[in-house]
# Entry
Amino acid sequence: MKIKKAKYEILSDIDENKILKFIERAGRICYKSEEHITDESALKFVANIIAREHESVLEHEKISVLFTFDRGVSHEIVRHRLCSFSQESSRYINYTKENKGGEISVIDIRRHLKNPIVSFEIWYDSMLASERAYKAMIDAGETPEIARSVLPNSLKTEIVVTANLREWRVIFRQRTSKYAHPQMREVMIPLLNDLKSKIPVVFDDITII
# Structure
């Protein structure tokens, strides 16, 4: 069994200038004000539409992110409607195969435990038990889609999430909140900060509480 850290990777090639100019070009159709487009006008235009909550224009641009976190957390991200998802399938992957690592991988939970010494040992033993049960079911002739029933919520999963900029703003407001799951915040807060550095005008007004 492998214990891995949750992480993210931005798959999109983010060109701030190109993104803002495209949003401006689309948005100015609403006002038929294309004559005001200049080399420098996009930043102010996008800032103004966000301030006026005319965020539908942001839907013309998208970002794709590859998340690596536990299966339980992935069940929350797929609740968002205006996204496309491609997720590692525990139904078709046989984790006992050598070319799949020969063992399961789980996401480290230690930083979120209130009693890391006692609780981690309990969690770790449970993960090992799940792995043993999974391998035993495979050895007994069960298919991965049946054997996966004994796999834990902590099972590592990879999922590509593609969403438009408006939906990412919704995701960040919900998933960086103090009410969000701590393992969700573990990846969403640094991702938000990363995107703030890449396209500040689109994300800088989202505060982390």
Notes: The helical segments are 16-31, 41-51, 71-77, 116-139, 144-147, 165-175, 182-198, 200-203.
